[in-house]
Write the structure tokens for this entry.
Amino acid sequence: MAIIIKTKDEIAVMREGGKILARILKKVSKMVKPGIATSELNRVAEALILKSGGRCSFLGYQGYPACLCTSINEEIVHAIPSDRVLNEGDIVSLDIGILYKGFHTDMAVTVPVGRVGSEVKKLMKVTQKALKISIEKSKPGGKFSDISRAVQNYIESQGFGVVKDLCGHGIGRKLHEDPEILNYIENNFEDSIIEEGMVFCPEPMVSVGSGKIKQSKDGFGYKTVDDSWACHFEHTITITKRGVKILTK
């Protein structure tokens, strides 16, 4: 595992890109309502990124055909925007990245479409709290296993399933760098010390059901095997002497 330590100047650029990305995702999230097509959310996201002077991190990445990922209900991540319309009571995970001045930042939120049920509200609350826990555990001198163990323990204590076949990641000049940020502990866990200058993306993915996944027919998206609804939140963070800073806010 080769984790790339970023300089203060590089982190400053990523902070600039992260702020732009956070503003864009906030605008796109506010567009979510019954009757809107996910393709329209993608169109606006792409236009805002290009207007900012950045480029879409996801567009063309391993052949992905859009700027934004729009995963609805049982879809977990990487679902392609389409003419599919959002309905009252749905949830949609919006995952987006920007390449700005040579560096990527990446973030995701799950947004309710109108009113949602109590179980879905709890799913969203638990996933958001799991992200908060992962950020709090990202301390200089700590271990990546501290993050994984705390996130898994919390999610499972709330009665939900951890999506284990997908994980967070390092980020920088490349969209995906070392390390992998797992949301669970496994026997052959490859651990490392968390150090100042590291930049990575914790992103818990949580399911009402087992957390087991299958790939969508299009070859890009992932959904739950049991069709249970899933949720996804993500930030890009950096490690400083004093602790952790969120770059995508």
Remarks:
- The CA atoms of residues 23 and 222 lie 26 Å apart.
- Helices lie at 8-30, 38-51, 118-136, 144-157.
- The two ends are 28 Å apart (CA to CA).
